[in-house]
Write a structure and sequence with these properties.
The protein is of the alpha+beta class. Helices cover 38% and strands 18% of the residues. It has a single domain, classed as CBS-domain. Strands 1-2-3 form a three-stranded mixed beta sheet. It is globular.
């Protein structure tokens, strides 16, 4: 069975935690993605993630101004991450156990890609 590195999407879209929710939404729209990995502030910091859902639920439906809310205020962090060599069946189990729709692939502290539920399903079909 393939490993996470064989099914992951490379060239992951990222954003700075100090960007606004509007900037995040615009970047998602421009790049056609539903989530952005939030860049680390330094080598010891953890990656975060901000999703369309975060923006809708925590900003728009809450009546907040998307130009005033910063990404770091609505992102999820720390993340459950995947080792690039992890077998796909274990990636699927990890995602199922934590209720994840996507997980970043990290090696040696660096972002390598991202694996989604769709990537896993395509592998087993």
């Amino acid at each position: 069975m393939p490993a996470a590195k064989d099914i992951m999407t490379e060239g992951v879209e990222t954003i700075d935690g100090m960007a606004t929710a509007r900037q995040a939404a615009q970047k998602m729209a421009e790049t056609g993605v539903r989530a952005l990995i939030v860049e680390r502030r330094g080598p010891e910091d953890a990656y975060g993630i901000v999703t369309q859902r975060d923006i809708v639920y925590e900003v728009i439906s809450a009546g907040e101004d998307p130009d005033e809310v910063l990404v770091h205020e609505i992102m999820s962090k720390p993340l459950v991450v995947v080792n690039p060599d992890l077998d796909v069946k274990y990636v699927a189990r990890l995602m199922s156990n934590f209720g994840l729709s996507r997980a970043p692939v990290i090696a040696e502290g660096k972002l390598q890609g991202i694996v989604s539920v769709s990537d896993v399903v395509k592998t087993i079909v």
